[in-house]
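[Discussion] Sanity-checking designs against the backbone

I'm trying to build intuition for which residues belong where. Below is a structure token string of 314 positions. I'd appreciate it if someone posts a full sequence so I can compare it with mine line by line.
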């Protein structure tokens, strides 16, 4: 009888106990079956070419699982330049090919468990850590989510989420933040220097608390449709990071915005804090009725320059 931790392997079709530790994509996101009819196009297990213009290779993203000794694998496709792809195929059967220098590539597989902001930031060259805030309640997914969260299902979704949000106390946030930052800065791919934190909804408050608790380490803080002032003005006085707060029009009155910005002024923080016009809570989330394309664009227009100034990445 299937257990909560069991899966059917897409390769061998066998049913296995335990959690699945590898997920993969059969093709790059750009692939469409109709392309198979085109000249100079093919898709095989490890390689893909589309119309002789786009070149992809299969690879693995390895994610160590804390305190287990196990590794989780994402099987992904990465796009290469024509020259790098040619060199890869030329040396495909060469026993010494592992000695080749690394090739630059763009991630070309959507990892659906990670939100669009995560994939976008990684595409700009940032190392992005996306913690599961609610890991104490069990392995993800903790609740079943519909493909689209409309007004009719939103109350039921939040009824399941709110107990976990309420249990995520400041003490838990700060304890986790210490561990996240320690892990992040220990990764060999991460450059030495400051970090940035960003969050959406309750994640905005988590990011704010993290930045306030680590003023010497966090150089940039961005939060969107989040209750960033929930801890009171004194908490903002501990910030040293450059800040951007993007508020939903439904979340904050102009008077409340003025009070928040006065607290930031009093703290001597370098910041921008604004209400995004014609938005409601959740405006960055494309799988909800709250989504606003103009709000999402404004969010990127504010976030990417902030990260560039604070972290020196372009």
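Best answer:
Here's mine. Compare freely.
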């Amino acid at each position: 009888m299937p257990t909560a931790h069991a899966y059917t392997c897409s390769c061998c079709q066998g049913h296995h106990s335990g959690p699945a530790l590898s997920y993969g994509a059969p093709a790059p996101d750009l692939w469409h079956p109709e392309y198979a009819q085109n000249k100079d196009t093919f898709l095989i297990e490890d390689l893909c070419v589309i119309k002789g213009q786009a070149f992809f290779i299969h690879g693995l993203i390895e994610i160590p699982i804390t305190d287990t000794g196990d590794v989780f694998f994402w099987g992904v496709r990465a796009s290469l330049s024509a020259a790098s792809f040619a060199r890869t195929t030329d040396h495909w059967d060469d026993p010494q090919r592992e000695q080749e220098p690394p090739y630059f590539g763009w991630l070309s597989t959507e990892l659906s468990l990670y939100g669009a902001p995560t994939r976008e930031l990684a595409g700009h060259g940032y190392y992005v850590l996306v913690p599961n805030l609610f890991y104490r309640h069990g392995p993800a997914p903790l609740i079943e989510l519909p493909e689209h969260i409309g007004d009719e299902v939103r109350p039921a979704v939040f009824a399941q989420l709110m107990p976990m949000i309420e249990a995520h106390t400041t003490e838990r946030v700060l304890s986790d933040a210490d561990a996240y930052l320690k892990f992040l800065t220990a990764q060999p791919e991460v450059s030495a220097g400051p970090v940035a934190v960003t969050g959406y909804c309750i994640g905005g408050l988590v990011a704010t608390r993290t930045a306030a608790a680590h003023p010497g380490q966090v150089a940039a803080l961005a939060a969107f449709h989040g209750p960033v002032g929930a801890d009171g003005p004194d908490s903002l006085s501990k910030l040293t990071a450059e800040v951007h707060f993007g508020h939903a029009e439904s979340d904050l009155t102009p008077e409340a915005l003025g009070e928040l910005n006065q607290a930031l002024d009093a703290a001597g923080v370098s910041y921008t804090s604004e209400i995004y016009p014609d938005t409601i809570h959740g405006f960055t989330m494309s799988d909800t009725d709250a989504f606003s394309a103009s709000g999402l664009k404004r969010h990127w227009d504010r976030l990417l320059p902030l990260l560039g100034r604070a972290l020196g990445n372009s």
